[in-house]
Amino acid sequence: MAFVRVCGLTELEDGTPKRVELDGIPVSVVRTEGEVFAINDICSHANVSLSEGEVEDCSIECWLHGSSFDLRTGKPNGLPATRPVPVYPVQIQGDDVLVSVTQES
């Protein structure tokens, strides 16, 4: 897995998603409950940016239709979304937040 620096830890406000793009993949990076998560930024129900939604209880909500996704697993917590969105591994090195969107071969 190739980890890439996406931002500094101090750049992330607790509960406020930050959209980044890695290898053409939109990713929402979220700091909440003392952890940092990376989840695909596009809702599986509609082509909408999740980083514009609310974060609560380790979930991110799509602002358009209200689907909520678990930041740990990407699984939807309620309708209308029924398909999960990809989540990505995160590493913290000092103040650097690193994310990998590549799979091991």
Number of helices: 0
- Amino- and carboxy-terminal Cα gap: 9 Å
Poorly predicted ranges = none
Mean pLDDT: 94
Strands of the biggest beta sheet: in what spatial order?
Answer: 2-3-4-8
CATH superfamily: Rieske [2Fe-2S] iron-sulphur domain
Task: Indicate the percent of residues in helices.
Answer: under 10%
CATH topology: Rieske Iron-sulfur Protein
- Name of the level-1 CATH class: Mainly Beta
Shape: globular
Helix and strand sequence:
EEEEEEEEEE
CATH architecture: 3-layer Sandwich
State Rg.
13 Å
Strand proportion: 35-45%
Pfam family, one: Rieske
Enzyme class: oxidoreductase
EC number: 1.14.12.19
Protein name: Bifunctional 3-phenylpropionate/cinnamic acid dioxygenase ferredoxin subunit
Structural account:
Helix content is 0%, strand content 40%. The protein has 105 residues and is an all-beta fold. The protein has a single domain, classed as Rieske Iron-sulfur Protein (3-layer Sandwich), CATH 2.102.10. A four-stranded antiparallel beta sheet has the order 2-3-4-8, with no helix packed on it. A three-stranded antiparallel beta sheet has the order 1-10-9, with no helix packed on it. The mean pLDDT is 94.
